[in-house]
Protein 1
Amino acid sequence: MRRAAVAVAAGAMAFSLAACGSAAESGDKSDSSDSAAKKGDDIKVGLLLPENQTARYEKFDKPLIEKKIKELTNNKAEVVYANAKQDASLQNQQVDTMVTNKVDVLIVDAVDAKAIAGSVKKAKDAGIPVVAYDRLAEGPIDAYTSFDNVTVGKTQGEALLKALGDKAKDGQIVMMNGSSTDPNAAQFKEGAHSVLDGKVKIGREYDTKEWKPENANANMEGAISALGKDKIVGVYSANDGMAGGIITALKAAGIDVPVTGQDAELAGVQRIVTGEQYMSVYKPYAPEAEAAAEMAVALAQGKSLDSVAKDTVDSPTTKGVPSVLVPVVSLTQENINDTVIKDGVYTVQEICTGKYKAACDKIGLK
């Protein structure tokens, strides 16, 4: 597992080195540089994040993006921020406000990838390039950064099969996927199915409305009633927030089985320490946030993306979008030190608070 963490660090370093190259070294992959006026460091960046149910957005993504934009612009850029609180209509209004306020570029993590398309077009029509962040928004976006989402699902599925061992042949699992409005959720599901199908019986499967833990909890209660508590051997949960709701339902029914997760939220890491949750997917947010910042600043300044975006992806509406895809790591008890602690996401003191101290001591987390 140490090698996996090192691989991520190396990947992030390679990205940083690549991003240091001159933006004028080669032709632009995006058409936005033709419409964007040549600007200096005094730019206005609109940042729109989707919700505050998941801890990562306010704790990691927002400050990391803001910090990198300031670094890239000699502290001259202004970042205008809004959070949609899981409301797609509100996010569309926020885009309209950003257009009215004449931001130079938008970074948008869409609540609903399809519903945002019209607003993306409005921004483009106003000469404002758009970076899709973390979720592949539809419409004429100029750039995209996220993690390899199919690989995320595969990583979760592989970890669950490892935890199940021979039990995979005997029982059934419950799949708790993310929101149907999030294109990432479909990719996580695709990756997980590619690993789990044929290896374990899927007794019940849900697309969880708005990723909410309380909805996952209700779905899990329904699955337990339908399948019987003795038949469930594991749960695929697409993220840590939902895993918390799932584990509450499992505990209430007296069920102790492996549960997956994603995002390495503090509560999720603490559940991994105690053994209540088997794993999470650790996604190093710094390289994702820095990629978004670098692409946004370059687009606002009318520069090429070639030195930053080494990949391309296709959305349902736009082909060949310049992209940065960041690798991920399976986080278990064995590699907490080599991942979230080593990378400075959490300290041992933050993880090992009073009720977790004994469990931390047991697994050597000191």
Note: The longest helix spans residues 2-19.
Protein 2
Amino acid sequence: MPDAIDYKAVFQALPGAVSILTPELLFADANREFLRGAGRTREQVVGRHLFEVFPDNPNDPSANGQRNLAASLHRVLATGERDAMALQRYDLESTERPGEWDERYWSPVNAPVFGPDGEVVLLVHRVEEVTELIRARGGNAGSRGRVLEAELYSRARELQALNERLRDAHAREREVALALQEAMLPAPRQIQHQGTAVRYRPAVGALNVCGDWYDLVDLVGGRRLGVSVGDVVGHGLEAAGVMGQLRSALSAASRVAAGPAQALDVLGRYAGVVNGAESATAVTTFVDFDTRTITYSSAGHPPPVLVHDGGRVEFLDRATDPPLDARPDPVPRVQAATTYTEGATLVLYTDGLIERRREDIDTGLGRLAESLRRHHGDPPDRLADAVLLECLPRGGATDDTALVIVRL
């Protein structure tokens, strides 16, 4: 067993045709099998854009290999998930007869490579050429080959068309769900409290959107403020509908409850009879401007953050309970309180801001704390934008994100 494996040599020796692409779709490397199958040298490939090296056949108006491949690669970048494509016809220009194009068939698979921060930093593009199988010739074998060609190509195109219809349907549902959520959440201009910024960012390239929500409620003549965020498990129209029910219920409960724990108790009992509210989480805070006190309670949700005037970051994590429908009756929920001085900042958020694939949640909380510490003196709107920029992955989060910032 060697002390160290030479992965560069392993990559070159792989029996399949594999290339490595950057997020900009530039070739970072390609193994010998890939170059042999493509009829290109390493110098003709590495460092150049994928579709500069392999454009669509200009003589075929129906050529769509480039469009399909680009869509697959961008899905991998957006979702961080592997994408196996349907059988593709993707012609290559002949290396022996420039200007002439060879009919070629491929079975591609694209996969992500993650960096230390959980972002997609490279793409693995593996192709298996099936041209010989599709274009079998001669005698009875040729006849069987042509039958197989028609069958394979027909089934692959049916699968591709079905996938496109499903993506279109999901895109329409996503659009409707986002519109529904926008209608149910308070718009920034509707929030009366000065020094407040709210942000909602839907997930990129995924369906798990529309479960996050936020709310601000004036209590007792405006001298107290209720600030809440929550997260519904699920996606699409169903999650948007459940989100609207829970947000409205908590808003009503907060106006009559003695404190945030009691408000969450009421909401938990309500969530127990709402289909789709299973494992939903929420956190609510009551801010008393006269006593400069924040009382808070959490139902399975990440802790609020209090950024003190000098930049010290305090996670409000002394009143954490299970999710809304998981607290056994009649055990009441817990709450805690802390004080603040003028100029402090209260921050509530959902887990899309701090969670990334293959990363411990403490790393995300640390990233949030550092961003808040660095920008604590900024006005709320600028602070909210800075936090989103520094805490969300560059390609966008795979979960939706709600963020509320209140300057106290």
Note: Residues 35 and 42 are 7 Å apart (CA to CA).
Protein 3
Amino acid sequence: MERDLYTAEHEAFRETVRTFLAKEVLPHHDRWERDGVVSRDVWRAAGRQGLLGLAVPQEYGGGGTEDFRYSAVLIEEFARAGASGVALSLHNDIVGPYLTRLATDEQKRRWLPGFTSGETVTAIAMTEPGAGSDLQGIRTTATDRGDHYLLNGAKTFISNGILADLVVVVARTTPEGGSSGQSLLVVERGTEGFERGRNLDKIGQKAQDTAELFFDDVRVPKENLLGGEHQAFAALMANLAQERLAIAVGAAAAAEHVLELTRAYVKQREAFGRPLARLQHIRFEIAEMATECAVTRTFVDRCVTEHGAGRLDAVHASMAKWWATELQKRVVDRCLQLHGGYGYMTEYQVARAFLDSRVQTIYGGTTEIMKEIIGRALLA
């Protein structure tokens, strides 16, 4: 069935994204995976191409559109290309809303031009060594010292952690902590006491720099408080639906792409004197995965539409996130099996997709947390 989610303008933007990937990303991605980090040049190239800050007002160099479908196109094309190193969606769809919705006019003038040009790479620091999906368990503290906060603590698994010039940090600003005592502080590269640990060695998404961050008596000026004091938890809850939808969009696209690769593979690969595609078991496997992908695509597209209308709630965003990522993991695993020994070779896209996909059911809220959110809402 033909998708009716996108207009001709969205499809024209898709061609722009594909051209950008072919020219600026794919020729370099293998090297970035060996390096464990992408070049800053690709961020500046993305800025020149208009791929950064799609929802940022035009006065700051952004695209000036609230239409999330443009972000969805970007996410889909990067997922299909297997370009996991350049975390544009993290920058645009996760950090971006905090800066556009919560920042003061003065903060916007300081931060958004670099955000949209690619000169300023961003990250958000929520996860801690002892607090993953449980945001209420955050222990990083920010003590009010008059004209500044004194920030102390550690964060881990921070995407863009090595490259980031601007980090939105979630910290406790009341002694008791909890959901009512957290604030968002923006820490800038070079601030005294702000240190980066190692670039973490992951099983997949090797080109995407993921780091530990340490804050030792970091003086954060009050001018870098993002939103109201003690208001972080509400802001986090408001933005998590879009984050989870973005992950679901990428997961659905990645599953579809790996299935396409596998369909082509089983048509040309022979066993026992005939193509694999002529074996009934193979046909059943492909039929099952194609059906699951089609059903998932329909639901995720509907969630994108609901989000655009301002109606997507936490429950349906959580449904989309856990279902699409679990589907991706399952489809990639089955497709690798159909490739046989070649599927285990990293020169094949299915092998890299297998490694890259595993984290999808973990970050942005684990599958188990997604089910807990849904279950609590349905049984309240």
Note: The chain has a mean pLDDT of 96.
Protein 4
Amino acid sequence: MSDHISASVADGVGHVTLDRPQALNALSYEMIRELAAIFELWRTDSEVGVVVLDGAGERGFCAGGDIRELYTYASNDDHAEAREFFRAEYRLDAMIARYPKPVVALMDGITMGGGIGLAGHASIRIVTERSRIAMPETRIGFTPDVGGSWLLAKAPGELGVHLALNSRTMDAADAMHAGFADSFVPSERLPHVIQALAERADPGSPAEIVMLFDETPGPSALALARDWVDACYSAPTVAEIIERLRAFAEGRSTATTGGAASSSFPQHPLDPGATAYAAAAADELETLSPTALTVTLESVRRARTLRSLEDALEQEFRLVSWFIEQHDLREGIRAQVIDKDRNPRWNPSTLAAVDPGLAARVLADERFDPVWPA
């Protein structure tokens, strides 16, 4: 057992904990291999009837993959090892999604990126008042992966596109509305949930037991923003999304084509909070990697047409295999994590300079062995 994963079996419950709290339980390659071995072992263990997955410490379940480790791979041109990391991670995510026993994921605190890969595909996904859920990849010149595009594609309307492009952080109510979580349980009651799962009596299923602790988290800001988000983020390109956000924020119509407005904003008095939110979203998009935004928009929209999580993971693998060789990923990690100057220098620096055919070309790239060989 590694120093960063702890696992135990008692009273029919397999309890596995990400135990790297000083790094917000960020996933290293070693941790991914360890988790895969545990889940494989427990698959046929008659002593394990349900699996509980959580993170050590009070700050978060898992902040994502180990970005510094990824930066080392990318900076040292160790791209083959990076691809093995992603293959192993994606296989683990799919294993959890298809696991023959209930997996209860406790997304208490920060749960982002690779943390979504583990918890977002579990059969029972619990959030708390401390949950902060996001796929924040565009902030580092990257794209949502670990099956994130699959979840984002299934979010209501265009909310998934908004969440992906803006790397927007969700609270518990937002996560449930967007389809990233199933139940809201106050953090102080999580130990009682685990105890109840251990003491469960047939015919009570784990899902029914969790429902005993389920509460209503309150209104979702995402749900309230749905009308104007759909109107703005349904635009065909990122540049046009930004233009629609600006138009909505300023209370004007967007350009017309053939006499019809290219977007349909809600026909009611503008909410100052909504217009400020839209203006901030537009401002934010103009600071992020044009390449990452362009590819991410196409990734989420294509994921809507895919048949399974595994298909989405294969699509994401083609994207990340390309991104780890690109300037913007290294530069984004440098600016956000290594030097922390928050001043990335993207190349190209504008949306207009991005090749319009780039996303389609990258998505069609099959140079590397897939996650699941034929």
Note: The longest strand covers residues 5-10.
